[in-house]
Amino acid sequence: MVSTMVGAALALPAAADITVASWGGAYTMSQQKAYADTWKGGKANFVNYNGGLGEVRTQVEAGNIQWDIVDVLPHEARVGCDEGLFEELPRDVFTPA
Description:
This protein has one domain (2-91): 3-Layer(aba) Sandwich (D-Maltodextrin-Binding Protein, domain 2), CATH 3.40.190.10. The chain has 3 helices and 5 strands; from the N terminus they run ββαβαβαβ. By secondary structure, it is of the alpha/beta class. 20% of the residues are buried. The chain has a 5-stranded mixed β-sheet.
């Protein structure tokens, strides 16, 4: 499950670069190929993320958000949303399949 950190991705202009926190290795390479390489908006920079909400919480509480998109586990997404760490993306930002 992919979540956006509070205020980060939605405030980006259409042609901005984004930072995506993901699990690394082949998994991140598959995301790069499927999503980032086909995105026309800017450059997607991937960083490795080891899971949990600690670093997400630290960034949000410090007002120093480094990641625009975070790939989290479903239970982390629920907790993060309940704590106000993530924002839901409006459905109209997605192109229909």
